[in-house]
Amino acid sequence: MTEIQAFAREFFRDPFNVASLVPSFAPLCRQAAAPLPETGDPVVLDLGAGTGQVTDVIQERLHGRGRHIAVEFNPRMAAVLAERHPKVEVICDDAHAVVDRLLDEGVRTDLAVSGLPWLATAPRRGRSIFEPLARLTAPGGAVTQLAHAWIRFFPDARKVQRNLEANFEEVIVTRTVMANIPPAVVYVARRPRVR
């Protein structure tokens, strides 16, 4: 079974927790990882890491530097991810719970890449995941959120953008990455509004 077939199988098993029918392609992954600092020992949080397409790009750009934490809720995908990337801290858990734990530990991230589906970014217990991600973001850090281009204008997608804007001073949307199936964009959020 190919990786795309395995990914599609997991999507059909649990479409609310698997964001896409197929994994993200390299051009989209590079766009999502673009804010990663080229120097120092950055801390990178990879949410909804799937089987590791964004993880591949982050690892390539880190060249053994820093700390890379990848979070995947689906245990089958997390197992594939851990096997492919033994040097990455792979956590099979709910993204909200992991972000809260990292905050309790005093971790600050230089980049958080979110491949989470829209429903996972929606407010839970009165807050969006972007609120704790804003508190987790180091000065000069960024949060990126992948999104299929065609759903950007739906009401739920607009809520995601409003949630980002409520927690970050700067939110931009990249050009559509046509070399992805389906075409996609990346929301890039900087300068957290920490309360």
From TrEMBL:
Transmembrane segments: none annotated. GO terms for biological process: methylation. Residues 44-141 form the Methyltransferase domain. One of its GO terms (molecular function) is methyltransferase activity. Keywords: Methyltransferase, Transferase. This is Methyltransferase domain-containing protein. It comes from Actinomycetospora straminea.
